Amino acid sequence: MDSTDLQRTTAPMRRRVTAAMVAEHAGVSTATVSLVANGKTHGRVSAANEAKVLDSIRKLGYVIDEIGSSLSRGVSSTVIMVAPDISNPFFAKVIAGVRSALGSNYQLLLSVTDAGQLPSAADTRRLLGLRPAGLLVDAPDPSFLEALSATGPLVLLDAPGFGEDVPAVNLDVAQGARDLAAHLAAAGHTKVAYLDGITGTTTFELRRTAFLKAATALGMSVPDGAEAATTIDVGLAADAFAEAWPEWKKAGITAVVCATDTHAYGVLQEARVAGISIPGELAVTGFDDLPYSANSNPGLTSVNLPAELLGRRAAEQLLKLINGEDLETPLLTLDSSLMVRGSTAQA
Amino acid sequence: MDSTDLQRTTAPMRRRVTAAMVAEHAGVSTATVSLVANGKTHGRVSAANEAKVLDSIRKLGYVIDEIGSSLSRGVSSTVIMVAPDISNPFFAKVIAGVRSALGSNYQLLLSVTDAGQLPSAADTRRLLGLRPAGLLVDAPDPSFLEALSATGPLVLLDAPGFGEDVPAVNLDVAQGARDLAAHLAAAGHTKVAYLDGITGTTTFELRRTAFLKAATALGMSVPDGAEAATTIDVGLAADAFAEAWPEWKKAGITAVVCATDTHAYGVLQEARVAGISIPGELAVTGFDDLPYSANSNPGLTSVNLPAELLGRRAAEQLLKLINGEDLETPLLTLDSSLMVRGSTAQA
DNA sequence: CTGAAAGCGCTTACAG
DNA sequence: CTGAAAGCGCTTACAG
Q: Which positions, given as ranges, span the membrane (chains A, B) (predicted)?
C-alpha cells in the first residue's frame, strides 16, 4: 500500500539516509536512533523519544545499513549455505526449507560449486571474509570442514559420519535403502546393478553401503562389473547405462538401483531408446523422490527424502546457535520412506 | 595443496588477522597493505615493500575483510539476484549461468520469493541495505522496479516490455511461440486450450499473447472458457486440467498449450489418470524445455529457452556496468526454438 | 533515560 | 614511493 511512498522516497540521485540524519531530524543522538531502530528501547529510551525517532525513521525512509552495522557488531546478518549442486531439484527444496526457517532477519547467501566439485580453500576464506552469522554446509567434505573449524555457528546437512563434534541434521537414508532392498527381494530379483553418483559426498556412500548390506542379507547380489558411477546428470547416466547394459544383461541383472532419481531418469530414457521393457525386463529405482518421479513413465520407485524439512530443521538449529542457545539435540535424523511406483511393479 | 596450512592458520580461537597486523609484521603502514592486498601496487608501492607485504599476508593468512572494505568503498562485492521461484529448474540453470559469468570476484546473493510472489517494498529496502555492487532481477514486476530506481548497476532478465530505460537480456519467446502455433496448425488442430502461469510476470503474458496471435493468424482459436491458470506446480496444474477437461472436451479442444513445462507435466499426469490418450486425443505442449521434458512419456513438445545463456549474458552486462563501462547493446535478445516430441506427434 | 566518544577494518585523498 | 589521518555507518560501553 505504501508503494507510491517508497517510489518517492527512493527517487533518483537521492542520498542514502543515515542514522545521523534521522538523529538530527528527531533531535536526538545517533545512539538513541540505533536503539530505536533495533527495537532495544525497553528501559533505555523514553516513550517520547521513541515516538519521535520512529516518526523520523518513517518520514525519511531510513533503513539500517547492513555494512556499518555488521562492522560494528563484528558479524553480518548473512547466513551462508554451501551446497554442492544447485541444479539438483533436491537442493532447491532444501533451500526453500532453509529460507522459510530463516525468515527475513537473515539473508541467505548461496555458495554453490559446480556439479561434483568441492569448495576450494580460497573460496572458504572468502566466505569467512563476509563474516557470516552462521554457516550451513550441505553434504560436506571432511577436509573442507576442518578449514572451517571454530569459526562460529555451523550446522551440517546430510553429513553422516561426522560424529558428535558438529551439529547436524541427517537423513535416515539407511532405512529407505533397507525398504528398497526388501521391496526388490520380494519381487524376486537376485542380481542387481548399482548406478552411483560421484560427487564424493558421504551421502552417496551411505546410500550404496546401506543398500548393498541389506541386499546381501536378503540373498541379492551386485555382481562384479555391475557398478557404474556418473555425476548427477540425466544424459551422462543414460550413456553409462547404455554402455554397461549389454554386459549387465549377460550377467543376469534384472534391476538397477540408482543413487539419485536423476540417474534413474537417464536409465529410463535409455531403456526406452533401447527397447528394454520396464519393469518387465528391468526394474529401476532412485533416491530423492523428485517431483517428476511421480510423472515419469513408468513412475519411478524411489526412496523419499524429506528435502524441505531437512533445510528447515537445519536452519532452525542454526538460529538457536546464533542466538547463543544450546542445542538439546545437536544431531537430528529425519526419516526416509520408499515410494513404490511402476518402475518396479511386480511382473 | 595448502589445505594443511589452512587448517593450522584457522585453528580454534584464533583472532581474525587484520591489515594492521600485517602492516606491523611487514613493517609498513596499513595503506601499503591495502594497496598490495588489492593489487594496486603499480607505481605506488616499491617492489621491496610489495614482496615484504605479500610474504606477511601469506604467513599470517590475511584475507581482506569484506565488511570493512565495503563500508570504506561504499559498496559491497555482492551481486543480488532477485528471482521469483527458485524451485523452477529453469531458474537453476539461469543461476548457473550467472555464477559462471560472475566468477569469484562477486558473491551471488539470491533473493528468492515464494512461488508466485513478488518481493515486498520492505524486502527491497533490506536488499539495498546490503549495498550490492549490482542487481539482477529476473522476471520483474514494473512496480518493484520503480522502487529500485537509480540505485546502481541493474540488469533485468526475461523482462520484455520495459523499454530502453533499463538494460535487459530477453528471450525471443515470440519466435518459439510462433513455431509452436505453426506446428500445431500443421498437425490439424483448430481448437486449443491455454493453461497459463499466474506469477503475474510479463514473460507469461508474452508467451500467451504471442501464441494466441500466431494461432489466430493460422486459423486456430482458443474458445471462451478454454483458458485456465495456476502457479508453477505440477499438482495444481493437474487439478486445474482435471476440472476443465470435461468442458474443454465438449468444446472440441484437441491441444493444450501450457505456459511452462511444469504445467504440462501436470496435464500429462492427469491425462494418464483420466485415460486421455496423448497425443491421439489431446496434444500437450510447454515452454522452457526442462531436462525432464525429454524423458516424460510421451516426450513433451516444448519451446526451448536458453536459460544458462540468459544468466551468463545478464551477468556479463552487469559486470560491465559495475566497471563503469557503457553497454554497446543494452538490450539483448536470445533465440528460442521449438523442440518437437511425442506429446504432439502427428496422429 | 541520554549523548559524546571510541571503535569495528578498510580505503583513499593528502602531504610529504 | 610512503604513512598519518579522515571517513565509511553503525553499536556499545561509559559517564552523566
A: none
Note if the bond before A306 is cis, omega within 30 degrees: no
Rounded to whole angstroms, the Cα distance separating B80 from B135 reads 5
Grid cell digits, residue B278: 496423448
Domain stops at, among B64, B87, B104? B64
Measuring from the CA of residue B16 to each C1', which nucleotide is nearest?
C9
Question: Which of B117, B114, B84, B81 lies closest to B99, judged by CA?
Answer: B81
Residues of chain B found within 8 Å of residue A78, distances taken between Cβ atoms: 109
Q: Which of residues 64-123 of B touch strand D (CB under 7 A)?
A: 71-72, 74
Q: Which H or E run includes B190? A: none
Annotate B242-264 with b (16+ C-beta within 10 A) or e (fewer).
bebbeebeeeebbbbbbbbbbbb
Ordered strands of the A283-288 beta sheet: A227-230, A192-197, A255-258, A283-288, A301-304, A337-339
Q: CA of A234 vs C1' of C16, distance in Å? A: 66
Q: Domain end: B19, B44, B64, which one?
A: B64
Q: Are residues B232 and B252 in the same domain?
A: yes
DSSP run (H or E) holding B215? helix B202-217
Over residues B116-172, the pLDDT tens digits come to 566 666 677 777 888 899 999 887 777 777 766 557 899 999 887 777 778 999 999
Whether residues A296 and B291 touch (CB distance < 8 A) is answered with no
**Could you tell me the CATH number of the domain that includes residue A294?**
3.40.50.2300
**What residue numbers bound the domain in which B177 lies?**
173-306+338-344
- A301-304/A337-339 β-pairing: antiparallel
CA distance A133 to A313: 17
The reply to whether B123 falls in a domain is yes
Q: Which of residues 87-106 of A touch B (CB under 8 A)?
A: 87, 89, 92-93, 95-96, 99, 104
Preceding omega of B279 cis (within 30 degrees of 0)? yes
For residue A19, say whether its CB is under 7 Å from any atom of strand C. Answer: no
Residues A182, A235 within the same domain? yes
**pLDDT per residue over A92-126, tens digit each?**
788 889 988 998 788 888 877 665 566 666 677 77
Residue B183 lies in a domain: yes
For residue B8, tell me if it sits in a domain: yes
Q: Which three cell numbers stand for residue B185?
A: 496448425
Q: In what order do the strands lie in the sheet with B168-171?
A: A331-334, A168-171, A154-157, A134-138, A78-83, A107-112, B107-112, B78-83, B134-138, B154-157, B168-171, B331-334
